[in-house]
């Protein structure tokens, strides 16, 4: 296990202060029992470090609803949005809740990418991994009347005339929408530094694609479904290992089946503030595992074309270290790294 908890002495000091009415630290000990277990005794807060409607927000709200409908936890869960900085505003907020286990947040690859770019002082090492709950995948969409029929058509044009093709995404340069495209395009032989990527964090990505201001939309699979149904766009490829199941998405070809041997997984899970105890982590691990195994969460995954990718705290910590190395290599390819 990574060094993400307070030393034993600090934990005992916290509990002793709580028993004596010791200021703010008393909140950390709430729910502790004689057998060493822990349960919250106040409502919980799930933070989505973004605006409403995105992947983080949807995951937080679906989890909160799932806990309530399945009666998995006695305490209620509220969801709040802390938008800004590609996630950095929300991370700073949670960092300020150190040792308070009643505040969790949703995260995905930007928690690795934004700090590596030097755009946040907080990275995954500064928080407590609780559980990963789903995997999502990237999709590369173009207008229905675009000249490309598959990814290979697109990438051949990008090799010849990279300055003529604009890729748009909601994340900042060097973050997820950019890097998932770079990873697939690089495997297909496109020079990562030649890719013309623009960021539209104001929610105008689809509008810019449809009105011709951009040529390719790098996004999540779910974000493309309605416009595909409407006949406005087509998806040239997705970053999954194999085709997804479900209406509409089952027709989206993978990059791999087009001969491009690369994938990109948008993992998404929950983290707590620094300073959580073993007992607190165990409590949340058990609750998230129960939600993950429920029929309701299975239906939720189907609804949003998410795949199952549950990891407990220890597995998650190890996975994140491996992912960080991979993300750093990609950032180096596009000359983006922490200053």
Automatic annotation (TrEMBL):
Endpoints of the signal sequence: 1-18
Keyword Signal: yes
A Pfam family it matches: TctC
SUPFAM superfamilies: Periplasmic binding protein-like II
Annotated coiled-coil segments of the chain: 310-337
Database matches in InterPro entries: BUG, Bug_dom1
Record has Coiled coil as a keyword: yes
CDD domains in the record: PBP2_Bug_TTT
Entry keywords, A to Z: Coiled coil, Signal
Family listed: Belongs to the UPF0065 (bug) family.
Record-given protein name: Putative tricarboxylic transport membrane protein
Species whose genome carries this gene: Alteribacillus bidgolensis
């Amino acid at each position: 296990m990574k060094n993400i908890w307070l030393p034993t002495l600090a934990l005992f000091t916290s509990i002793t202060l709580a028993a004596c009415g010791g200021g703010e630290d008393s909140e950390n000990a709430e729910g502790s029992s004689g057998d060493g277990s822990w349960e919250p005794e106040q409502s919980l807060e799930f933070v989505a470090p973004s605006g409403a409607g995105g992947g983080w927000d949807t995951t937080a709200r679906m989890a909160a609803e799932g806990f309530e409908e399945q009666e998995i936890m006695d305490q209620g869960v509220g969801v709040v949005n802390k938008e800004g900085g590609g996630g950095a505003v929300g991370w700073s907020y949670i960092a300020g809740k150190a040792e308070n286990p009643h505040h969790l947040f949703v995260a995905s690859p930007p928690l690795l990418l934004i700090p590596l770019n030097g755009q946040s002082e907080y990275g995954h090492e500064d928080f407590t991994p609780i559980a990963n709950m789903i995997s999502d995948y990237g999709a590369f969409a173009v207008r229905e009347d675009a000249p490309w029929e598959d990814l290979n058509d697109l990438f051949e044009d990008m090799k010849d005339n990279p300055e003529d093709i604009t890729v748009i995404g909601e994340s900042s340069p060097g973050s997820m929408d950019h890097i998932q495209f770079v990873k697939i395009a690089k495997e297909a032989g496109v020079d990562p530094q030649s890719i013309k990527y623009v960021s539209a964090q104001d929610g105008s990505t689809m509008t810019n694609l449809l009105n011709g201001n951009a040529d390719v939309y790098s996004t999540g699979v779910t974000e493309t479904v309605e416009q595909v149904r409407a006949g406005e766009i087509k998806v040239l490829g997705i970053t999954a290992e194999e085709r997804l199941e479900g209406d509409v998405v089952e027709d989206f070809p993978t990059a791999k089946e087009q001969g491009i041997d690369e994938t990109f997984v948008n993992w998404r899970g929950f983290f707590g503030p620094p300073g959580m105890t073993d007992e607190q982590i165990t409590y949340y691990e058990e609750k998230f595992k129960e939600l993950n195994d429920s029929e309701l969460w299975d239906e939720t995954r189907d609804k949003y074309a998410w795949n199952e990718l549950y990891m407990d705290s220890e597995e998650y910590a190890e996975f994140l270290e491996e992912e960080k190395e991979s993300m750093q290599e990609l950032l180096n390819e596009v000359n983006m790294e922490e200053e």
